[in-house]
Amino acid sequence: MERLQKVIAQAGVASRRKAEEMILDGRVRVNGKVVRELGTKVGPKSEVEVDGVKIEQEEHVYYVVYKPSGYVSTVDDDKGRKVVTDLVPPGSRVFPVGRLDYNTTGLILLTNDGEFSNLMTHPKFKIPKRYVAKVKNVPSYIAIKELESGVKLDDGFKTGGAKVRMKSVDHKKNTAIVELVISEGHNRQVRRMFEAVGSEVIKLKREQFGFLTLDGLTTGEWRELSRKEVSKLRELANPTVPLEKRGKKKKK
């Protein structure tokens, strides 16, 4: 069940605020009856009319996509670059949940459910994301501790604590493979975090989002999330769920 004004907005008739005005003005009917209550909820089979015209309710879809490098995380691009929505079947008007940089690869979610997207991206819900970065200039022990406790970015923003693990080091090339788990998603955050401690990200991949991983997918591929997975992701946004349980992989 969804709020009536949300259904009208998702159908592209008007913004949610304008939809509320339409409801109050008596311009909306549900199953043939005028509805003026803003709290009214409707199901997918409810017949909704605005100014006598029936609107089509779009069924929610949820995809996990293995984003390749060279795609932008948006619905369209004024520079003509490839967009992540090109990777999933046409039909539903999906959009990316958060963003991955143009050259960053890995797990990204696509959906047409705005409420779900907000739950997955708002910092207060603390959904963990695991990244693996290849960096130039091997981070020192002190740099790792700074990343773990939070660093100040170039715009003055102080990041929250991160989980950091050094996976491998190539002393000859002065490079390292570092795993980083954060629950935020500011613009280019991982790259900027490493820059703040004197390292440069050469390659970056997001390998996990909550309990979701890229298992079974190769670059450019996608799969649809099950109802159980969507429900579990919603549960992860529940502040009563202990943080240590939010990034656990789903048992098969």
UniProtKB/TrEMBL annotation:
Q: Which InterPro entries match?
A: PsdUridine_s_RsuA/RluB/E/F_cat, PsdUridine_synth_cat_dom_sf, PsdUridine_synth_RsuA/RluA, PsdUridine_synth_RsuA/RluB/E/F, PsdUridine_synth_RsuA/RluB_CS, RsuA_PseudoU_synthase, S4_RNA-bd, S4_RNA-bd_sf
The record's section on Pfam families has: PseudoU_synth_2, S4
Matching CDD domains: PseudoU_synth_RsuA_like, S4
Q: Does the keyword Membrane apply?
A: no
**Entry EC no(s):** 5.4.99.-
User: What are the RNA-binding S4 domain coordinates in residue numbering?
Assistant: 2-59
> Which parts of the chain are coiled coil?
none
Q: Which UniProt keywords apply?
A: Isomerase, RNA-binding
Which top EC class is given? isomerase
Family the entry assigns: Belongs to the pseudouridine synthase RsuA family.
**Name of the featured protein:** Pseudouridine synthase
- Organism annotation: Exiguobacterium alkaliphilum
State the organism's lineage.
Bacteria, Bacillati, Bacillota, Bacilli, Bacillales
